Amino acid sequence: MQNTSYNPKTLTIAKGDTVTWVNKDSFDHTVTSGTPGNPSGLFDSGNIGPNGTFSYVFTSTGTFLYYCKIHLDKMTGTIIVQ
Questions:
Q1: CB 3.0–4.6 Å: which of 32, 49, 71, 78 could bond 10 by disulfide?
Q2: 42-78: per-residue pLDDT in tens?
Q3: What residues form DSSP beta bridges with 53?
Q4: How many other C-beta atoms can be found within 10 angstroms of the C-beta atom of residue 19?
């Protein structure tokens, strides 16, 4: 997370992989599964402060959308699990 965006915006991983998000901005972000206004409940980091991290293990295949609750439509991402 840097410059109010997830980098990369889309990431393809294998089932069982762990993704770790790192906040490189000077303000808080979240990593929340679903889409703005429609969280899926799969994961929610809560507020991640500067230099903070959040990790999640993806145990099933599929396409998983996520967003920042603070920055909504400006900050969205996708994890593709194969």
A1: 78
A2: 999 999 999 999 999 999 999 999 999 999 878 999 9
A3: 22
A4: 18
